Structures are given as structure tokens and as C-alpha cells.
Amino acid sequence: MHSTPSTRHIAFRLLSTLVQSHIHDDAIRLSTLLELITDEAFPQMRTAAIGLLRSTVLAALTSRKTQTPYTRSFLASPEMLYTVSPVILRPYPRDLFRPFIDLERGERGGNSNDSDDNNNNTNIAPPSRDELTLSFLRTFIDSPEPGRLTEALNFYYALLLADKKDQVSTK
What we know:
By secondary structure, the chain is mainly alpha-helical. Helix content is about 60%, strand content about 0%. The chain has a domain at about 5-95 and about 145-160. The protein has helices at about 5-20, 25-40, 45-60, 80-90, 100-105, 130-140, 145-160. α2 runs antiparallel to α3, α2 (about 25-40) packs parallel to α4 (about 80-90) and α3 (about 45-60) packs parallel to α7. Pfam families: Kinetochor_Ybp2.
């Protein structure tokens, strides 16, 4: 993506128009959006693509085509939710929370069986649990992942509010 915010915004608007107005097949539209959501090269696009998915699904929910089960859009169905949920709720990278999980289990990472012969700095204490937690949280907050996860939760919240006819229900 371009470093200038205005250029990124224009590219996003063009992509939004392309996806919503020029791709008429729901499967291709969803496939395109999922590809953008999982593209690790552009973290900002992953977040923006979830917003595109939200607006596309909301448009499908309010479309007149969704009135009957026979003409219902795939984007306004439980199958859509089964398809996108594992993708948008998965942390990036997949092992993002591994250090925190290991910390909760009492593991510190690295090999704790190092002998004193292999450890040149025997007088240096390992970092405390609080220091490791703070380090993890700083790394997490400085990453693009909190924004992406927030956008994913916004997707579900908007879906809950808009799905008045329970079209996407997974009951």
C-alpha cells in the first residue's frame, strides 16, 4: 500500500466500488474479500477489507433479493458466517498470543535447562512475569492487530443489529 493516507483512501474507495458494484457473483465477491482479509503483506488492507465485508453483507441483508429462501444471497446466509468467522477471528500472526499463553502456563520461552557453563551471565535474573506481560502488551498494542480485531467485532455487532429477520442465524 502507498504511504500517503489520501492515496490509500482513494485506493480503498476504488476497491470498494469494484467489489460492491462490479462483482455480481456472491462467491467471487466473498472470495475476493477473504483474500484481502488474509493478505499479510498489507495489514491496513486486512482491516479495511473487514469493513468492506461488513458493508457488503449489510447491503445483502437489506436487499430485496433476500426476502425468500430461494432468492437469498449467499452473503445473507448462515453459510457466509461459517465461511468468514474462522478467517476474521483468527489472530495474525496465528501465534500472536502464544507468548501470553505460555506466560499464563508458567513457561518463559527458551530453554530453561541451560547449564551454568553455557550461560555467561549467571548473575542476570530472568525477566519477571510482570515485565514479560508488559512487553507482550506493548508489542501487541503497537501492532495493527488490535485495529483488525476491533473491526472484526464491529462486523459482528453490525450484523447482529441489522439481521432483523434472522437470516444469518446459525441456530
